[in-house]
Amino acid sequence: MKSGAQAMEHDFEEQRRTTEAVLEDLADRHDLPARATLDLQFLPVAGADWAGVVAALADAGYAGQAVADEEGDWFEVAVADVPLTLDGIWKHERATTEVALSCGFRPDGWGFFVG
Question: What is the model's pTM?
């Protein structure tokens, strides 16, 4: 755990089920591309370590992909060329969530950009 961050309980199985449901709903309503840039959003909780999360994400292979909003209310990790499948999304969602939780952030959702 990074400095200042509190250990947080998290249900990864529920998170994966939610991701699966959201993806299925999107696929039912839209013609999804095979691949896209995946954006994963996280919200700080008390004691969140902003500098630590960026460094820890870089250590986990997500260097340069974490961006905080100007007000410091959230940050996002953008991962290019992700297959829009449950396994493709979950691979990055799980990895970034583990890092974020260790630094005092909780997952807030994901989206994608095609362009």
Answer: 0.87
